[in-house]
Amino acid sequence: MDYEHDLLILMMVVARLTRVEADRRARQFGMTRAQWGILKQVFFNPGLTQRELANLLEVEPITAARLVDRLQKAGLIERRADAQDRRIWRLHLLPAATPYLEEIDRQRQDITAFITAGLAEADREVMTQALKLMKANLLRGTGGGMPKGCHEKLQENA
Q1: pTM, rounded to two decimals
Q2: Are 53 and 91 in contact (CB under 8 A)?
Q3: Helix or strand or coil: residue 62?
């Protein structure tokens, strides 16, 4: 088998290398890719619970809690008690997170430009449509295998 031309392997390698590049860039700002992910998830889903966040990030709840602890200590995020259930903490961004969100967006754009350098716009559009179709196919096939809440959130962003 020619692994250099295997679509699944290429997608996995490109995804891994993209994560490595995002990690490198996040470190330049004293953060981690995971922390960037939390800021973006809470931006898109204000009032998200720590459990929902853990599911979306595909990490254990204790891992999400530790990451949130660091962001809270940095003054970027706050936990607010749920109005109906005092055991639940809802996550909200603080104003100090705004410049980080702007930088995350700049870096996302830069990474996209970097990894797609040399691709014609038409090829980028074909790739985008193909990946959206693959995502939809996977979501249709995974319904019960994903943590509660994740399947719906992924479909909303499809």
Answers
A1: 0.79
A2: yes
A3: helix
